[in-house]
Amino acid sequence: MASGLTCGTIFPVIPDSHTHTCFSFDSQALPEEVCRAAGARGMREVALTDHVDLNPLDGGYGYFRPEEHWSGLQDCRARLNGRVRVHIGLECGEPHLFRQELSAITAAHEYDVILGSIHWVGNRPVETAAFFDGLDFRAGIVLYLDELARLAEEGDYDILAHLDIIRRAVFHRYGWTELDWTPYEARMRRVLRIVAERGKALEVNTSYRRRGMGPPGPSVQVLRWFREEGGRFVTLGSDAHRPEDVGADFGEALDMVRAAGFESIAVFRRRTPYRIPI
Ligand SMILES: [Zn+2]
Ligand SMILES: [Zn+2]
Questions:
Q1: Considering every ligand atom, which ligand is closest to the CA of 19?
Q2: Does some domain include residue 6?
Q3: For 163-192, how does the pLDDT look when each residue is reduced to its tens digit (9 = 90+)?
Q4: What is the percent of the chain with per-residue pLDDT over 70, rounded to a whole number?
Q5: How far apart are the C-alpha atoms of 267 and 252, rounded to whole Å?
Q6: Could you say which ligand is closest to the alpha carbon of residue 118?
């Protein structure tokens, strides 16, 4: 019997498609350090996806300077000299609400990847307990999912980032580290169907683990729904704001993607997805 006599499973090193540098208002990380951290973990490519916060409510509003950002990351690329392939990306909060402003930025340079994120629903911040002020749990979740559907449908993005970021508000309000989406299956599937039909990617975000908020998300169940709705592209994102967090908990995330039946992970170059077999 040959089984058990193999030389070990070969694990592909999956690129991190969601990281931040000091071009984001909430990170001090030098771009080169983020890229070197990716290289040290065996990644051949990494996406730097700094915040573009066009929502005046957001703490990062007004911070992003497109030209400084672009030239700074081009310098980083040059210094890395091909040792790690640097993808220049952006993470835009509520891109469906700021379409013109975002397209003015993305038209100016050849970005590799745009992450679409919900950070606010109206004036409710999705990362704090205050999200649920004046709302019961179900009403809050429905409000979130309906905004997510609008982003999925109307936003310009390649990857829908942290699909279940409302878990942060749930954690702070209720102390729960997991969320059962079964009661909201129809609404969630609608979001996933839109992402799939538009040929966009879904991110598995590992930052919950580092924050003590439970496993990477979305759950295997939600990833299965995505596949059933025709989803083809899944990316991994640490959402690192420090070099040491690049690629954190990717082993666990990879197991989840496999358990959901996917056979590849996607990475974007020049806004085009490529798939890495897993
Ligand atoms: Zn985000
Ligand atoms: Zn982020």
A1: 2
A2: no
A3: 999 999 999 999 999 999 999 999 999 999
A4: 96
A5: 18
A6: 1
